[in-house]
Write a structure and sequence with these properties.
- The chain has 324 residues and is an alpha/beta fold.
- The longest helix has 20 residues.
- α5 links the parallel β2 and β3.
- It has eleven helices and twelve strands.
- It has a single domain, classed as 3-Layer(aba) Sandwich (Rossmann fold), CATH 3.40.50.
- The strands form three sheets. Strands 3-2-1-4-5-12-11 form a seven-stranded mixed β-sheet, sandwiched between helices. A three-stranded antiparallel β-sheet has the order 6-7-10, covered by helices on one side.
Length: 324
C-alpha cells in the first residue's frame, strides 16, 4: 500500500478535524483518516494494513466480504436495469483491493460500458484505480479527479451518468448528513442519472457486536490516535493510552466507535491546550445501519426515485438503484 499521508489535501483537512474533535466542537468526524499508511518501517501508523488484517483474520467481520459477494453475484441485476453506454462516476473508490473485488466485478456486468471516472482525495489511491480499471477496459474513457467528493463544484458531463457510492463511506454519514449529501450529488450531476449505492441494513445486535467487538477491529480503530499524533500533534500525546469499545444505539441505527482514555494526558494542538482525563470517552466515528425502508425514504426525500434493490445472501448488505 502506498503512503497516502503525502497528500496535502488530506493533511490539511485532518488538522482541521482533529482540532474540532479534541476541542469538543464536533465528534464522530474522524472516519476519513482510519486507513493511514506508514511512512517507514518503524512508523506505527498502519490503519490500512490493520484493516486488511481484519478482513483476513476476523471471520465475523462480514461487511467487506458480503459487499464484494453482492457485486460479484448479483450486481448484474442492477446494471441490467441501467442498460448500455453508461459512464460510472465512483465516489471514493478506495484501495486496489476494493477496486478488484467490488468495482471491477460490477463494471464487467455493464453492457457496453462507456466510461469510468474515479474521485478520491488520495492521489496515490487514484493512480492505482486508473491503472486497474484501464487494464480491464483499455478502450473506454477513464479518468480521475483528486478531490474531496463532498466539496466538488462541478462534474464533467456524460450522456448517461451513474453515480456509484460503495457502502464503506455512506455508512459513516450521520442521518441528517445523508439527505444533504445526496441532494448535493443530485444537484452536482444536474441531469437525469442513476445512483447506485450500498449500505449495511443489519439490525441484529449480536452479529454486529461479533463483527466489531473483537481484537482486530480494536487495534485498527485505536490506530487512528497514532495518525493524529504523527500528522497533527507530534509532541506530548500518548497515542497508545486509548482502548476501543463499540456502542450500539438501535433507536438511531448507529454503531459508535468509541475510544476511552486509559491515562490522563495534556498536550498542545494549534495553540490550544488539550487536557484528557482518564476514563474520558471519544466518539471517533459511527457506522450507521439503516433498515431498507428508512434508507429509501431518506433518499426519496431528496427527489430520487427507488428503482430496485438487491440483498446479499445473508440479508444484511443492500445495493440500491435510484433514478434522479
Amino acid at each position: 500500500m502506498k503512503n497516502t499521508t503525502e497528500d496535502k489535501k488530506v493533511i490539511d483537512k485532518l488538522q482541521e478535524d482533529a482540532q474540532e474533535f479534541f476541542l469538543g466542537k464536533i465528534n464522530g468526524n474522524l472516519w476519513p483518516y482510519v486507513y493511514g499508511a506508514p511512512q517507514d518501517n518503524n512508523d506505527p501508523v498502519r490503519g490500512g494494513i490493520l484493516y486488511n488484517k481484519v478482513l483476513e483474520g476476523e471471520q465475523d467481520y462480514y461487511l467487506y466480504k458480503y459487499e464484494a459477494e453482492l457485486f460479484q453475484t448479483k450486481g448484474h441485476l442492477l446494471t441490467s436495469l441501467i442498460g448500455s453506454n453508461a459512464t460510472f462516476i465512483e465516489l471514493g473508490p478506495g484501495s486496489e483491493q476494493s477496486i478488484r473485488l467490488k468495482t471491477l466485478p460490477l463494471l464487467k456486468t455493464c453492457p457496453h460500458l462507456s466510461g469510468y471516472l474515479g474521485i478520491d482525495i488520495s492521489q496515490s489511491f487514484l493512480d492505482k484505480v486508473i491503472e486497474v480499471i484501464h487494464s480491464a477496459f483499455p478502450s473506454i474513457f477513464i479518468d480521475g479527479i483528486q478531490a474531496d467528493f463532498t466539496q466538488l463544484k462541478d462534474l464533467p458531463e456524460f450522456a448517461k451518468p451513474v453515480v456509484f457510492f460503495k457502502g464503506s463511506t455512506i455508512a459513516n454519514l450521520k442521518r441528517y448528513e445523508v439527505p444533504v449529501f445526496i441532494s448535493y450529488i443530485k444537484k452536482l450531476v444536474g441531469k437525469k442519472h442513476y445512483l447506485l449505492v450500498v449500505h449495511d441494513a443489519n439490525q441484529d445486535e449480536i452479529s454486529l457486536m461479533k463483527a466489531y467487538d473483537n481484537s482486530g477491529v480494536a487495534v485498527f480503530i485505536e490506530n487512528i490516535m497514532y495518525r493524529l499524533y504523527r500528522d497533527v500533534i507530534r509532541v506530548g500525546m500518548e497515542p497508545e493510552q486509548f482502548r476501543y469499545k463499540p456502542e450500539w444505539e438501535p433507536e438511531n441505527h448507529e454503531l459508535k466507535h468509541v475510544l476511552t482514555a486509559t491515562k490522563s494526558q495534556k498536550f498542545e494542538l494549534n495553540g490550544h491546550t488539550i487536557e484528557i482525563e482518564e476514563g474520558q470517552k471519544f466518539h471517533t466515528f459511527s457506522s450507521f445501519k439503516y433498515p431498507i425502508e428508512v434508507f429509501q425514504n431518506m433518499l426519496s426525500l431528496t427527489g430520487y426515485k427507488p428503482i430496485d434493490f438487491v440483498l446479499d445472501n445473508s440479508g444484511r448488505m443492500a445495493a440500491h438503484l435510484f433514478e434522479g
